[in-house]
Amino acid sequence: MKDHDYMDGRCGHHGNGWEDLAESLEHTGRLLSHCLGKRRGQGRILRILCQQEQMSQKELQDILHIQPGSMSEIAAKLENRGLIVRGRDDADKRKILLSITDEGRTWVSQRDDAAIRQQRAELFSSLSQEEQDTLRTLLERLSADWKQRLESEKQ
After folding, report:
1. What is the DSSP secondary structure assignment for residue 95, as one 8-state letter?
2. CA 78 to CA 96: how far, in whole Å?
């Protein structure tokens, strides 16, 4: 699918029920990514790690839809700059854990976070505060359920 395919409404919103809801969510996610400039680079990784403290490289690559080789390359660059530390999970030596360093936190804090917050706020300006709160609650409920399902599948 080309970028303009989802911009001009060719996403195929047909029928009713859960399929439309999933399609709508996928469509909205693509538009959100487009509106945010598809920031999947080093800055986005550092911001996520700043919020999460520590995360597996695989989890981060899945969140950002980055190929394993690209994720390894970006992580190596960030590590070489002293912005993150890579280590092995004690429980599962195959899992690579990424942690942000103090220098990485400083890098994030020096960026224009106010501009990013303003841009994100503008994306949801068509919704009232009550609607934004409802959407946040629904998304958090879905995320928690989906995370639990994924964890159950792994067992």
Report:
1. P
2. 14
Are 4 and 92 spatial neighbours (Cβ–Cβ below 8 Å)?
Answer: no
Q: Is 85 helix (H, G, I), strand (E, B) or coil?
A: strand
Q: Which residues contact 124 (CB under 8 A, 6 or more apart)?
A: 132, 135
pTM above 0.90, yes or no: no
Q: Would you write out the chain's pLDDT as a tens digit for each of its 155 residues? A: 444 443 444 444 455 566 788 898 888 888 887 776 544 478 889 989 998 889 999 999 888 888 888 899 999 999 999 999 999 988 888 889 999 999 999 888 877 667 677 878 888 999 999 999 999 999 999 999 998 998 888 87
Distance from C-alpha of 11 to C-alpha of 93, rounded to nearest angstrom: 42
